[in-house]
Amino acid sequence: MQQMTDWNALDDETFRQEVRTFFQQNYPEALRYPKTRLRWAEIKDWYLTLSKKGWLAPAWPVEYGGMGLSPTKLMIFMEETERHGVGRAPDMGITMVGPLLIQHGSQAQKAYYLPKILSGEHIWCQGYSEPNSGSDLASLRTEAVLDNDHFIVNGQKTWTTLAQDATHIFLLVRTDKSAKKQEGISFLLADMNTPGIERRPIRNLAGHEEFCECFFRDVRVPKDNIVGELNRGWTIAKALLGFERIFLGSPKQSQYAMARLEELIVQRGLGADAAFMDAYARLKLDLLDHMALYERFADQVRRGETLGPDVSMLKIIGTENYQRIAQLMVEAAGCAGGLVGDVELDGERFDWLTSYYNSRPATIYGGANEIQRNILATQVLGLKS
Amino acid sequence: MTGRMESLDSDEKARSEQLRLLADSVAAFAAGRLPLARARRLRRALPEFEPAMMAELAGQGWTGLLIDEACGGLSLGFAEAAAVVEGLAAQLAPEPYVPVAVLAVRLLQAAAPGARRNALLAGIADGSLVPACAGQETAGDPDPERPALRARRAAGGWLLDGEARYVRPGSGASLYLLLARSEEGWALFEAPAAGLELGMEPQADGTALARLRARGLRADEALPISAEAIAAAFDQALVMNAVELLALSRRMRALTLDYTRTRVQFGKPIGSFQALQHRQVDLLIAEELTAAAVREAIGALDTGAAAARRASLACRAKIRAAETALHTAREAIQMHGGIGVTDEYDLGLYVNRTLALAPWLGNARLHRRRWLQLNPPTLDRAG
Fold first, then answer.
1. What is the Cα–Cα distance from B95 to B58, expressed in whole angstroms?
2. Which of A:359-378 have CB within 8 Å of B?
3. What is each CA distance from B237 to A83, A321, B292, B359, in whole angstroms?
4. Residue B24 CB contacts under 8 Å (≥ 6 apart), including other chains
């Protein structure tokens, strides 16, 4: 039984210290600043440590087993997570399924699923994208047809992050083919062990397998596993992310890559190369200005204000800066630029290509930057398409 | 603890409310008294601004915003000054507000106190004096090895020699404040226009930069000033220069947005085309980054940040503001099509003001080099 603490009653600095100390004392040193997404086998112990501490779901209300943090405290929690280089656990249950069920789930769904997310028994993955439905997600075709007490699901999902490690999947499925595309979609929960579900890892450019394709063939999902009303899945999925959208635009990954770039510059003595240093200065200034703009939005969150569509800016700035920094790392490596993994250069070890590979999909996932620009054009600038 | 924080909060609220009121009154003044037709009419005028308008600005209290109350000013900060700077820049007022009410004021305030210094400050506050500062071309530390102007003691006063460029206002200054170096250090020397060889170099926006030469010019009094105080004054002016550039970016982007909403080609407003939408989004992003950098810099000025931090933030604000304004100007022209390069259309006034203000006190490239010297890459793992 965890102690019940009203975290929000602590002053910010005390809370920050408590979080920082806990991370320092409990997070495995070897897993700090992981270069790629950690697999369940690697991060499981940490997940359970957080679970025991009662810190797994910082944003959930206390009554559901979360920490119930205010936006300000949650920002601090996230800042400390990033600062210490705590790896991201399979968190779809915590960031997506939990908040969704708390808002739209039935009593039975909440009672069954939420504790199992918090105990680590259920690990969730997200079944949104399809081979022909990426940016145009609402065109999705995976179909669920009601047959007495079950939906029969047929179709294919893709880019399912770490589906290999998941026990459950939440799905957007088409339940009415005659309706306007956004209005015929429902939100469904499925056990990955249900017969007819097959997952196949996708190997990426770096040779890693973070994503899967998931195939659904006559998969029988209990009717009660629908969340919210039939054909209302799009609306609730869209409303899911509130102020947490700011985290998509965090400068942290750029800051981390920048620190590695600076090590390369110092180690290789690139400071004398004026053209290179001008390119470096541009990127560093881009990063500092991104941090300043991020703070403006963070202040908005701390004041409890709702984030507007303009927060999309942060994602564009952050991911594009990140890519440019990674590119410059490869350039800084010179003739060694094409070497993979930890490469010895002038007596130190560096890994620029992992940063390079990690930076590429950043402008694609979470709403491609082109989509973010569409959002800004229509919703902020008021331009019509 | 909590009580103190609450009172800080309420102080902050009161200040931001005051700032809003000030910005509103500047905007109302600018809308009524500074139409764009006036800016258009005053291009290449002599002098390049209206002394009567400087007096009006003084009447509002704005030329004395940064000046101590003892000298007839309001003792306010850079956030307030920025509100005035932004309002005037948005309407392209040619009045040399930043060169006079910021740069000259901050240099004079840093000089050793005395009757003459106080009289000069009071003159700026009441609008009777419009001094132009000469002797340093860019923001940053003055170079003691190669000062533009040199001073030496002579019977009962000083003699000055040298040449200074890029001096604002280019015309209409009621006196010159020459920043010169003697064996005793840096000092400001007052010189009437009559004693100087003065030339004018016309700028893109219809104002000019003065170029002046002193040959054995006599000055009675030296107002000593430290190198650090000079650097601070120039950094403060640099941040206000960034505010001006931000205001110009905002106006050029707004003009472009309006234009692309109404201009119809292929049967649709051109703003419905994704190619133009994304370019305008990128301008919005650049503008918001600029606003964030400028806000941080103003905050540092108002809280008296240490020299290195102040200089770094001033550089950053100027770099971002200049690059954004120049980029916005080019994009605005392109998205307007042919009308964007005509003299008749107002966009051109903003483009030309941008071309004039972006290099003033040092362009983005120069300040990037300066910033890099202040912030060399290190092995700091905190990132």
1. 12
2. 370, 373-374, 376-378
3. 36, 29, 18, 13
4. none
Sign of CA dihedral A11, A13, A19, A22: negative
Could you give the angle at which helices B307-336 and B347-357 cross, rounded to 10 degrees?
Answer: 150
What tokens appear for A150 in the block? 């079950």
Handedness of CA A260, A261, A262, A264 (dihedral sign): positive
Question: Do the chains contact at A288 and B295, CB–CB below 8 Å?
Answer: no
Q: How confident is the model at residue A366 (pLDDT cuts 50, 70, 90)?
A: confident
User: Taking the model in full, what pTM does it have?
Assistant: 0.93
Burial environment of residue B262 by CB neighbours within 10 A (0 to 12, 13 to 18, 19 or more): exposed
What is the rounded CA–CA span in Å between residue B13 and residue B144? Answer: 44
A48 shares contact with chain B (CB less than 8 Å)? no
User: Tens of pLDDT along A22-56?
Assistant: 999 999 999 999 988 899 999 999 999 999 999 99
Q: What sign does the CA torsion over B60, B64, B69, B72 have? A: negative
Q: CA-to-CA distance for B170 and B165, rounded, in angstroms?
A: 10
Q: Taking the CB of residue A17, how many other CB atoms lie within 10 A of it? A: 12
**Rg of the Cα atoms in chain A:** 22
Taking CA–CA distances from B369, the nearest residue in chain A reads: A278
| H or E element, residue A295 | helix A274-302
pLDDT band at B382 (very low <50, low <70, confident <90, very high): very low
- C-alpha span between B300 and B296 (Å, rounded): 6
Query: Does the active-site annotation cover A244?
Result: yes
How far apart are the C-alpha atoms of B72 and A172, rounded to whole Å?
68
User: Could you tell me if B252 and B332 are in contact, meaning their C-beta atoms sit under 8 angstroms apart?
Assistant: yes
Query: Which residue from A255, A317, A385 is facing B285, i.e. has the nearest CB?
Result: A317
The structure tokens listed for A94 are 């915590």
Cα–Cα distance list, A144 to A138, A214, A252, B370 (Å) = 15, 15, 40, 62
Question: Nearest 5°: CA angle at B33, between B27 and B37?
Answer: 105
Query: Do the Cβ atoms of A196 and A217 come closer than 8 Å?
Result: yes
Q: Which residues contact B341 (CB under 8 A, 6 or more apart)?
A: B333, B348
**Chain B residues with a Cβ under 8 Å from any Cβ in chain A:** 1, 257, 260-261, 269, 271-272, 274, 277-278, 280-282, 284-285, 288-293, 295-296, 316, 319-320, 365, 368-369, 371-372, 375-383
* CA A200/CA A159 separation, integer angstroms: 10
Report the C-alpha gap between A36 and A353 in whole angstroms.
12
